[in-house]
Amino acid sequence: MMRLFFAALFAASVALTPGLADARAGSGSSMGSRGGMTFTAPPSTRTAPSGAMPMERTMTPSPSPSPYGNQPAYAPRSSFGGGFMGGLIGGGILGLMMGHGMFYGGFGGLFGMLIQLAIVFFIARWLFRMFAGRSAVPAQGPAQGPAMFTGQTQPPMGGGGGSAPPPITITPQDYQQFEQLLVGIQAAWTARDLNGLRAMTTPEMLGYFNEQLSQQASRGVHNIVGDVRLQSGDLAQAWAERGVEYATVAMRFSMTDVTVDAANRVVDGNANEHVVATEIWTFMRARGGHWVLSAIQQAR
After folding, report:
1. φ, ψ (nearest 5 deg) of residue 58
2. Residue ranges per domain, the chain?
3. Helices (H), the chain
4. Using an 8 Å Cβ cutoff, are 63 and 55 in contact?
5. Looking at residues 99-104, what average pLDDT do you find?
6. If one looks up domain 22-73+135-298 in CATH, what number appears?
7. I want to staple 269 with a disulfide (CB 3.0 to 4.6 A). Which of 133, 194, 220, 258 is the partner?
8. Cβ distance 140 to 133 under 8 Å?
9. What is the Cα gyration radius of the chain?
10. Long-range contacts of the stretch 119-128 (C-beta < 8 A, 24+)
11. How many of the other CB atoms lie within 10 Å of CB of 89?
12. Is the pLDDT of residue 82 over 80?
């Protein structure tokens, strides 16, 4: 019976391991800095009509109150592990109150409960991946040409009134750089090329990417993103402040996104299908310089 108990605990620990979905660069998080607009929601666009999620991690000091409303500047996502352990503790307390002991029903009952919860977790994860923003599309042949950004080249600034920073004009050449950075950053991420990432990102974003790659290494896995294609893009904001220019764009792109273990066995994803993601990326440059990535936000 004890062997079954420990086997159940091992199965539960596997189930509680953070999901490998959204393992691309940024790992499905909202992080980075947008200068003085970091805590101001970028305007919605046709590509991201529901807007962007607030920053989960940023080195920019948080104003008070946040322009996002009552949401904290750093709002960690709730995890299945927390709910799972809460359920175990709650069930144990209920058992004590009923006079059955902490693990009422014995280890066999606990084993059955763990298996059922693991099954529910994997079913819920499967449903989420089917109906969430990462919709799967069949793998296709080579891209026929560069994707086109749409929208104004000089959009109105949102929510700033007279205090909003002055807008700047974004040219077709700038859009081409944004698409090149999208593809290049995913390629450097796949190659675990920190020097390549350093040339395309701010030091803050490089630190986040390095941390995420280190977490993958500690788990013995490697994320591989390939065939990145920009499907649509919209300019949300473009402005200048303190000698620095910023541009926030919503991008919907497809890619192959698989995670493999040390033996090169696929542990998540499917190399034969593309997944689609919508994210809001902010780029910055010194006047006359080249664009680098300064923030990634997830679409709502």
Report:
1. -160, 150
2. 22-73+135-298
3. 2-16, 80-97, 106-131, 172-190, 194-200, 203-219
4. no
5. 48
6. 3.10.450.240
7. 258
8. no
9. 22
10. 121/15, 121/80, 121/84, 122/15, 125/19, 125/21
11. 11
12. no
